[in-house]
Structures are given as C-alpha cells and as structure tokens.
Amino acid sequence: MAPPPVTQPGAPPLDCPFCRIVAGTAPARLVGAGPEVVAFLPLRPVHPGHVLVVPRRHLEDIWDLDEATATAVSRTVLEVAHAVRAVFRPDGLNVIQSSGSAATQTVPHLHVHVVPRFANDRMGAIWPAPADGAPEELDDSARRLSEALQHGHDDDRLGERETAVEERDRQ
C-alpha cells in the first residue's frame, strides 16, 4: 500500500472531495458560489432540493470554524433555504451540520445539509423518542454551559472532552 500523500502543514488534505470541488478539479452540480462559500448538490441526495453548503477553506468540523466563515456559511444556508422553498415548496426543512463520526459526519470538511422535507418522505424522523432528564443532571449541564459561555471557550481541549465522555460512559 502506498503511503498517503504528503501535504504542507495547514494545507487541506489532497483527498478531501469538497476541497477538490471548491478547487474545480472534481465535478459538482453547483447551485451557488461566493468568495467564501460554495453550495452544490450531493452525489446521493435524500431527494431533489437537498443542497450542501461548504466553506471554500478546508475546516474539518464546527470546532475549526471562525466567526467570519460561520457568518458566510450561515448567510448562504439561509439563501439556499429560501431558494429550496421557492423551487420545491417543501412541507418543512432540515438544516443539519454534523461534526465527528459519532454525529455521522462522513466527509471531514465542514458542511451543512439543507434538506427539504415532505410529509412521509423517505428520510423519516431524525430525533429519538423523548426521554426525561434527571433534574440534577439538567441543572448541572445548564450551569456548566452557562459558565463556559461567560468565560469563553479557552478550555475546549480535546483531552478534556475525551475525559468527560469517558466519565459519562462509566455512569
């Protein structure tokens, strides 16, 4: 087996399909493009009107996203949502951004799915049945998240996140 291609530090991976689309070296059905964002149809859409919105710059997931790019992506998602509504007249719409394999991210380049929804479509429900949370756990989550928002995100290090997941899984 050949070793993976070598890239410069900070350069996008050579095998990123979305980077190839952005660069114009891979085919895509583009529906919109701006200086910071590209919108195109996925290879296997849920149904007509399903659009992907991706930043031109390679960002692996939401934790790599800066505020300026987030603004550009959000603006484009909103524009695409209005276009999808005008063209396909869906009963509803899902806007989905998945980060990490546990969240079903299959391409490690930040992207947002804009998916028109129709009554009884093949996509089905995307949320599990509701479950009651323990009041103490909900209070603790609210307190910890509020503190993180008030004091910034400087302690958002992967090692700490992994420790928290391990502690949760032991319970």
From TrEMBL:
<dbReference type="Pfam" id="PF01230">
    <property type="entry name" value="HIT"/>
</dbReference>
<dbReference type="InterPro" id="IPR036265">
    <property type="entry name" value="HIT-like_sf"/>
</dbReference>
<dbReference type="InterPro" id="IPR011146">
    <property type="entry name" value="HIT-like"/>
</dbReference>
<dbReference type="GO" id="GO:0009117">
    <property type="term" value="P:nucleotide metabolic process"/>
</dbReference>
<dbReference type="InterPro" id="IPR001310">
    <property type="entry name" value="Histidine_triad_HIT"/>
</dbReference>
<feature type="domain" description="HIT">
    <location>
        <begin position="17"/>
        <end position="124"/>
    </location>
</feature>
<feature type="active site" description="Tele-AMP-histidine intermediate">
    <location>
        <position position="111"/>
    </location>
</feature>
<protein>
    <submittedName>
        <fullName>HIT domain-containing protein</fullName>
    </submittedName>
</protein>
<feature type="short sequence motif" description="Histidine triad motif">
    <location>
        <begin position="109"/>
        <end position="113"/>
    </location>
</feature>
<feature type="region of interest" description="Disordered">
    <location>
        <begin position="146"/>
        <end position="171"/>
    </location>
</feature>
<dbReference type="GO" id="GO:0003824">
    <property type="term" value="F:catalytic activity"/>
</dbReference>
